[in-house]
Specification:
It is a single chain. By secondary structure, the protein is of the alpha/beta class. It contains 17 helices and 27 strands. The protein has 3 domains: about 5-75 and about 130-145 and about 240-385, TIM Barrel (Alpha-Beta Barrel); about 395-600, Class I glutamine amidotransferase (GATase) domain (Rossmann fold, 3-Layer(aba) Sandwich), CATH 3.40.50.880; about 615-669, Immunoglobulin-like, CATH 2.60.40. Helix 5 (about 110-130) packs parallel to helix 8 (about 205-235) and helix 10 (about 285-295) crosses helix 14 (about 420-430). Bound molecules: alpha-D-galactopyranose (GLA) and zinc ion. Zinc ion binds near residues 92, 108, 150 and 153.
Amino acid sequence: MFRFGVDYYPEHWPEERWETDARLMQEAGFNTVRLAEFAWSRLEPSPGRFDFDWLDRAIAILHARGLQVVLGTPTASPPPWVMAMHPDAFRVMESGLPVSYGNRRNYCPTHAGYRERSRIVTQAMAEHYADHPAVIGWQTDNEFGDRCYCRHCQAAFQSWLQHKYSSLDALNAAWGAIFWSHVYTAWSQIPAPLATAAPFGDGSHNPGLALDYYRFMSDQYVAFQHEQIEILRRECPAHFITHNLMGAGYDRLDYFDLAADLDFVSWDNYRRMQWTFRPEVNPSEAALSHAVMRGLKQKNFWVMEQQAGSGGWQIVSVAPRPGELQLWAHQSIAHGADAIIFFRWRTARFGAEQYWHGLLEHDGRTGRRYQEIKRMGAELARVGAQIAGSEVRAEVAILLDYDSRFAFQIQANNPAFHYTAHLHDIYQAFHARNVAVDVVAGDADFSRYKLLVAPALYVLSETTARRIEQFVEAGGVVLVTPRTGVKDETNTVVNMPLPGLLARVCGVEVEEYDSLPEGVSQPLAFEQPGICDGASPHARIWCDILRTGDAQVIARYTQEYYAGTPAITANRYGAGHAVYAATFGDASLYTMLAPWLLKLAGVEGTLTTPVGVECCVRWQGERAIWFLLNHTAEERHVTLPAPMVDIVSGQQVDAAVILRPRQVLMLTT
Ligand code: GLA
Ligand code: ZN
């Protein structure tokens, strides 16, 4: 069943209103509501005294209107009494300062007392709702994240290290602690990597220590979540468990680890937020997030918070234009969402998020946004069952590596290099050609794919290197970019030429490199006809200077002391090819390389569409549902391979399609 619904806060509104809300939700075609993830103070007004009556009444009203419920454990925002009970449970920032009461996400995930409160409230909710006919599943906490640097975390880090390294000798060797005489002689001496260790802003902790700390902090949230999951699985075996993650951009948690414990992943999909204030929203950014979220468990996901209006805490963002809310929601579906839950139902009149707009206005009126989503609800009532569970099939994968991502947070290598932006530069090249891409971990089954992109695989394990090599040997095509294979898993620079463990498969060795100042770039000269006709992609940020063995030269640098030396190479290896792009190009470099790589790998595109029109396919067995999404404010013409059928209207659609501004079509053959 396709889930369509809304995030609702009955505790914010008078009880007399609840029936009206439930009726309007039903009329909008909603079947699912998320509740309670910020209601701790109402659920447990004082330690151990629980009040579920109000929530029971709210759920009963919703259920009578055919709505089912996902409950959030409320631990993301503790009531004041919890923090008064545990004043040392406030999260400590990298600066060494504790956060104070006022916002949310203010707790330390390690703190034993906080963990106990988390288990107590989870247990009480789980027992109360285990057999409730309306409740179908759980969301743990809300948007886990934020590293803590408190003394409890420091002590837990020391135990984590003891478990990992067994001996201080092993730890000192792994980190190269002899550098600056940081040789530890007791576990209790090991610090958390606070910013205060770098009074001159040079920020340099031992990279081995810092990487371990980032891994440790990620593990702490996974462990915090696991305690809730254990309770929920025991008490509510019939319910699913998910968590709302934050898309491709969030980089403080290893989302693969966090997702491993869940039945499926959910994420919160926002566009026009105050910090991305701009007229045109690039659809490839959300698409990348969808690909990352789908890749975490290599299965469909929920959007637990789909944008319902202007965003805004202090500043109000641009109003979503007519058609945009449904367009963005359909884009989520096109990329593998099996549920769209809008955030939020009614715009709050009080609290920090007064300007984060819901489907209803502050005064409870239904307006343009509600009507638009209601129309979408009516459509989904007809076609949702055909869509739910159908899958996105990709032959291209991009490898997302959290060790590398964390390590770049410690040493950016070049101030203009941003791991997520690099991922997006590459992703958008495939997105623009409507080629489905999975974003996967280093231990994923690569044999499902024909083309694998390994962007800046900075920390490279022997296992992953071997798996990439085997993938190419068996006929796959891999694209490798700079700063790959630089570090081993201890965040120590490898004792061999770069790209380290991938040098053999790439057929190149990096003799030296040039880290470019911001704004400096140079055109690349392409040797092979047909790859870069007309376009002139530039090298920027970083230039590896290569010695090539058997690898074929695809493009060369044109400036500096390395003018004329290879910048892009392709190496035959076994039955496949390894392409080494020795510079971080601008997005146009990948846009240009993509068709050539796809051809080399034998991947066919779905459909060529004009700029701003996206085409995605979801498969139900052999039946394909095509989503055509016009992200522009203008008409767009698309030519289909043959006439198709609009699954909403049942009407035949001509091969020459005219899409209205922001129109979405769902088609089948
Ligand atoms: C996040 C949170 C929500 C809400 C929205 C809007 O995604 O999960 O609780 O705060 O942002 O700010
Ligand atoms: Zn802490």
